[in-house]
Amino acid sequence: MPEVRESAPSSGRPRRAGRGGGVMSSTGLYIATGIAGFLFLVPFYLIIRNALSTDAEITGENWKFFPTDIQWGNIGELFTDDTVPFAQSLWNSAIVATLHTVGVLLVCSLAGYGLARIPYKHANKVFYAVLGTLMVPTAVTFVPSFVLVSSLGWVDTYRGLIIPGLFSGFTCFLFRQYFLGFPKELEEAARVDGLGYWGAYWRIVVPNSLNFFAAMATITFINGWNSFLWPLVIGQDPGSWTVQVALSNYMTNQTVVFHLIFMATAFSILPLVFVFLFLQRWLVQGIAQTGIKG
C-alpha cells in the first residue's frame, strides 16, 4: 500500500504571495513617475530662469541654476515695448480662443447629435464625408479660405480669425461617438413630455454631458490659443496679433531678444495652465466617456 503522509497543520492565515514583488513594483512605479514629473517640469524651470535673466546670462558659457541678479524689470519691458503690443495680443488670444471654443462646441455638438440620433437615410454618408475632411491636408484649403475671408473684408478682424475654424471634423466625430452611447431612455422620456430633438438636446443631453463638454472645451481652447499660422496671415496689423504671432516678432533676421521671448512665453502659458488645472478632472472623465467603440 502507498504510504500516506500527514500534512502539517495549517496556521489558518492566508499566505501572502509576491509581497516582495509588489513592493518592488510600487517602488519602480514611484521612481518612473518621479522621473517623468522631473522631465515635465524642466522646460518650465528653463522658461522662468531665462525670463528673469539677461541675454548675456542666457547665452553665456557659465551656466547658473538661477540668475545672480533677478531681472524683474523684464516684466515691465515686455508690456511697454512699442514694437510688440503684447498686452493687446493676450487680449486678442483670450477673445479668439474663448469664442472659438464656444462656437466649436455648439456647432460640433449639434452636428454630432444629429448624426447620432436623428433618423435620416443619408446620415452615414454625411458622417463619412465628415471623416473625409480629416484626410484633407490643411495646406490644401488654406489658400481658398484666405481668398474667401479676404473677399469678405474680414482681414484684421475677429470674424476672420474665428469663423473659418468653427467646425472641426474630429470634434464632430467625438461628439457623435459619445451621443451614440448616451442613454436613449432619458430622451424618450423627454419626448413623452412633448420635447422635440432640440428640447431633448438642450434640456436633457447637455446638462447630463457636462464632463464631456468640459473635456472638449479644454482641448479646443488649447488648440485655439496655440494657433499660429492662420492668425499670422489674417492678423496683419499689430493691433490684431494673437499671442503666438507676438512671440514670433521677438525673433527676427536681425535680432533675437531672448529674455523677452522667455518672459512672453511664461505669460502666454499661464492661461493654459489655469484652464488645465481647473478642468483636468473633467478632461480625464470626458475622454473616458467618448465611447470610441464603433
UniProtKB/TrEMBL annotation:
Q: Which Pfam families match?
A: BPD_transp_1
Describe the location of the ABC transmembrane type-1 domain by residue ranges.
90-279
Look up and give the membrane topology term: Multi-pass membrane protein
Give a GO cellular-component term.
plasma membrane
Which controlled-vocabulary keywords does the entry list? Cell membrane, Membrane, Transmembrane, Transmembrane helix, Transport
Question: Per its UniProt record, what Gene3D superfamilies does this chain match?
Answer: MetI-like
Q: Major location, coarse class? A: membrane
Disordered, as annotated region: 1-21
Q: Which SUPFAM superfamilies match?
A: MetI-like (SSF161098)
Q: Where are the transmembrane segments?
A: 21-48, 90-114, 126-149, 161-179, 200-222, 256-279
Q: Which domain of life is it from?
A: Bacteria
Which InterPro entries does the UniProt entry name for this protein?
MetI-like, MetI-like_sf
Q: Does the keyword Ribosomal protein apply?
A: no
Provide the GO biological process annotations: transmembrane transport
Q: Quote the PROSITE patterns the UniProt record gives.
A: ABC_TM1 (PS50928)
- Would you identify the family this protein belongs to, as annotated? Belongs to the binding-protein-dependent transport system permease family.
Protein name stated in the entry: Sugar ABC transporter permease
Origin species: Streptomyces dysideae
